[in-house]
Amino acid sequence: MRVFLSHRTESEGPLAQRLSTDLERHGVATWIAPRDIDPGVTWPQAIEAGLQSCTHVAVLASERAFQSRAVQQELQIAEMLQIDGLVVLVPLLVTGVELPLWLRVTQGVDFTGPYEQGFDALIRVLRRMPAAVRSEPVIYHRVRRGDRIDLLAHRYLGASQDWRLIADDNPGLDVSALVPGTLVAIRRR
């Protein structure tokens, strides 16, 4: 499972960052701009690739977010991916905004009250909601200080000795010294 956090950076950026950190602490991988956009990649390319790499899209729903051209574009792509059964959309209601008509049929998670209540509800929803089915189950992990290839193998594949599988899927990755910020693709087997 990997969650794309769609948000307007200027208004919902701090909340999106907090959600990303907390979701990843609970074992849920996230994709969030600008953190996951590599240098030299255009934003539209990165956003589309990010959306296509995720199983869920959580949109931080606010009036400002829906006025953002970037969020509108993300939601257009997400809507197409949802129609194709490739992602599940989850509105996160951060203000008392009226959702677009096509999104109103989806039950949202209420973040207008205490953060902890909203976050607990989101975790419950993500864990019981079936993830979109993808032909290649790939997890993307952004390397943090202290990460080691054997620890990633143990965390995502269940056995530290499977580190070679991760190395094989990431040519050019220096497995002896993972560089913080590097995005590592891990295929579930």
Mean pLDDT, all residues: 85
Number of helices: 7
Outline type? globular
State the strand order across the main sheet: 2-1-3-4-5
For the biggest sheet, the summary is: 5 strands, parallel
CATH superfamily of the largest domain: Toll/interleukin-1 receptor homology (TIR) domain
What sequence of helices (H) and strands (E) makes up the elements?
EHEHEHHEEHEHHE
Strand content: 15-25%
**Class per helix and strand makeup:** alpha/beta
Please give the CATH class of the largest domain: Alpha Beta
CA-atom Rg in angstroms: 17 Å
Work out the count of structural domains.
2
CATH topology (level 3) name of the largest domain: Rossmann fold
Low-pLDDT ranges: none
> What is the second-level CATH architecture of the largest domain?
3-Layer(aba) Sandwich
Spatial separation of the terminal alpha carbons: 14 Å
Give the total of beta strands.
7
Share of helix, binned = 40-55%
Detail the topology: elements first, then pairings.
Blueprint: E1 2-6, H1 9-25, E2 29-31, H2 43-52, E3 56-61, H3 63-67, H4 69-83, E4 88-93, E5 109-110, H5 115-128, E6 138-142, H6 149-157, H7 163-169, E7 183-187
Parallel strand pairs: 1-2, 1-3, 3-4, 4-5
Antiparallel strand pairs: 6-7
Helix pairs in contact: 2-4, 6-7
